[in-house]
Amino acid sequence: MDSTRQNDRKSLGLQSARTFGCQNCRTVVAAGSKQLSACGGCVSTRYCSRACQKDDWSCHKLICKSLAGVHERAVEVAKGGAPGTSDKSNMKSNRAAVLDWYNASGILLHRVSFLAWKHRRESPIIMVFAPSLSEDSGPTVTVEMHPRTEWEDAQWGEPDVVIPARLTFGHSSFHADVTFVVALSITSIDSGAPCAFLMSGSFPSHIPHVHPSVLMTLTAEDYAAEVRRRNHNCKGALYVRLKGLCGATHLNGREGQLKGKDPNNPERWTVHLLHSGKEVGVRGQNFEDVGHSKLFESEF
User: Fold this and answer.
1) What pTM was estimated for this model as a whole?
2) Which of the residues 90, 145, 170, 195 has an alpha carbon 20 to 30 A from that of 181?
3) How does pLDDT run across 206-230, given as a tens digit for each residue?
């Protein structure tokens, strides 16, 4: 493997998810950091300092009240949490749980960043829908790209997403080659209530080096799967995709590393699943070889 390919491989390691930034200067910090303070009016927009909040007030005051309405509706939705906790506390803990889930799902982050980069000139909102936090980035998690021409339409069904999206895209410090917008919507979390909110993220360092043909030919799912295979790659490893399983249909389509014959059953092979780290025994007809795809400009 040449040095360029090795450098690309190094850049593919899962990076810290950088999901919050100062609304004025766009200083980005890790999710859960206490370095940012929320506006006291809308309790949604965050700043790294009083100076930045003051500097942004001429723009923010135009929508602060609208954002406060969005926040109040989110608090209302969060009612019914753990006994002895406030609605605002429930909402805060719900969002923290969703962020932890999102940041822990490496393949989901790659699906989102791929779509956001591919359509960055369309000011897209990347919508992520999941039934619960127990789900990973499998078929029950939906990732959709909605361009501005769609989400600005009065008939679009996500009004509480539009207001903060306009704020983010319209800010003078927003750069489409650096930042993207994602909305997370979980049907039911531990408290039993739904949770949905919009946030901005920063593109990982390897995304600008994806070859244009890859953006045109690969789906977000295929791209993320190839990134995951490279992150788990071992010299001489063979990667396979499960298929035709009847007793464990939820594993069909999952990928893993073929470890060899099952020592306890000569009719089965052991596959180390990439999404869960578990090992399963399957028959030879229940997996197929997965070829590697070129991704980066240096590989073409």
Assistant:
1) 0.71
2) 90
3) 999 999 999 999 999 889 988 888 8
